[in-house]
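Subject: Protein entry, chain in single-letter code together with its fold tokens

Area: Proteins and the way their chains fold up in space.

Attached in line: The record itself begins immediately under this heading.
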Amino acid sequence: MTAGAAGETTDRTALLSAAASASVGSAPAGRPTPAHHGHVPPEERGVTTLHDRVVERMAARIAGEVDQVGGAAHRVLGVSTGGDEAEQTPQVTAEVHGRMCALRVRLSVDYPAPVAQVTDHVRQVLTDRLAELADVRVRTVDITVTALRPPRSARREIR
């Protein structure tokens, strides 16, 4: 054993011993006691990082819950390939930087709903809900309407 290795062993033993004595109390092992937790200001307890994909999934779900909004139409050379957009959620791409994000959303809107009003409502709902649920401030929401969905009575149904 080298001198460095012996020193490392002593350091590890001291750390383990300190950790064991710190966990003595009423809290389960590995969890801080309430008294210890109360002394650390919230801003010093750590950082929660949300990856782009997490925000994308949340935003897609939120946008899909807005009335008169459906999933993005799948297109080939600009022509809708069919499929039922109503069964899909909107497609969202997010760029997250700290607590700020920019969103790009692809969705369909029910016809004859006013597209501008529906998309403005989607922007507002996304901004409010992401702030409420994830403490993320939405900087921009770019929306592409990929299709106007026919009224429910005009949609094809497979029996």
Q: What stands out?
A: The helical segments are 3-22, 34-39, 52-64, 115-134. The domain at 52-154 is CATH 3.30.70.1350 (Alpha-Beta Plaits).
